[in-house]
Amino acid sequence: MATPGITKRAATLAALTCLLAGLTACSHVTGTGAGAVVGSGAPLRIAMNVYSRTLPYFQNIIRGVQDVARADGHTTVDVTYGDTDPQLQFEQLENALSTLPNGLIVLPVDQSALIPMVQQAAGNGVPVVTLANDLDKAGHKFQLAYVGQNYVDVGRQKAHFIVDALNGRGSVGYIHGIRGLTFSEQQAQGAMEVFKTAPGITVVDGPYAGQFSSDAGLRATENLLTANPAIDALYFDNDDIALGGILAVQQRGRPMDGIVIIGTDGGQPALNAIGAGTLDMTISLCGYASGRTAAAALIDDLRHGNKPKDHFIPVDALEITKSNLEQAQDEITAGKC
């Protein structure tokens, strides 16, 4: 559903840019208005909306996007934060589109709430790349691409790790992140598939923490351990809530080598916890590499009209335990993850 006048305003803006910048800069622009292919010498502006400003994973994504923009030499990135509020994200994207960006990078907190805005962007020739969470299938035709991981596979991988660590027998407490979030729900789907094939595993399906923070993880884990003090393993959707869960276990005086604890994201606090032996495994979603991949795909489309072959552009995840911690840190430092 396109907003009347946006295309006309885009054409007017392009003409004004040419007048101010001179014929040299304008000679790189092919076409007019939003969605035009922009040559390598002309400026690009990307609007980026991230649903949380605190997660290390998201900060790594932003850093990757900004590094690719800097390497392009003529691209700027404007970042806003939705604070895990779908309505706020919707309003922020509406505001972003009114400023006529060349492209959008969006990390949606809700699979369906932003589809009308992404559709509006597509209708005005503004390509949209989603990161970290995809839209519902109804929104795929309006996206340039989704960059990230298959979270069902991530859930399976984490569940297999726990089953193996417990030798197929024990109780597993499951602390979810945010209800309805693709990242949380698809992980659960994959993990439960694996746990159901292990007859010696009992899953205590715990609460949704409601946010990705150590405080939320602490509260959720305290509640679960109060009802199930002899739990053998704890599955956390992400590292932030896992770090709070570790504190809850420590406060009960349980030896850390007597419980298996896993998370996801692979930020530095989680890597420190693996080194200290309080977190057994995390899966880095390689935020920096994901940000670089998303920015490169968007800029390639804007500069050259090259569209990805598939809607989904996968980025390899990295399982990290104490045994490969040093190697993993080297890969992260080198920008490979």
From TrEMBL:
<dbReference type="InterPro" id="IPR025997">
    <property type="entry name" value="SBP_2_dom"/>
</dbReference>
<feature type="domain" description="Periplasmic binding protein">
    <location>
        <begin position="46"/>
        <end position="301"/>
    </location>
</feature>
<protein>
    <recommendedName>
        <fullName>Periplasmic binding protein domain-containing protein</fullName>
    </recommendedName>
</protein>
<dbReference type="InterPro" id="IPR028082">
    <property type="entry name" value="Peripla_BP_I"/>
</dbReference>
<dbReference type="GO" id="GO:0030246">
    <property type="term" value="F:carbohydrate binding"/>
</dbReference>
<comment type="similarity">
    <text>Belongs to the bacterial solute-binding protein 2 family.</text>
</comment>
<feature type="signal peptide">
    <location>
        <begin position="1"/>
        <end position="27"/>
    </location>
</feature>
<keyword id="KW-0732">Signal</keyword>
<dbReference type="Pfam" id="PF13407">
    <property type="entry name" value="Peripla_BP_4"/>
</dbReference>
<dbReference type="GO" id="GO:0030313">
    <property type="term" value="C:cell envelope"/>
</dbReference>
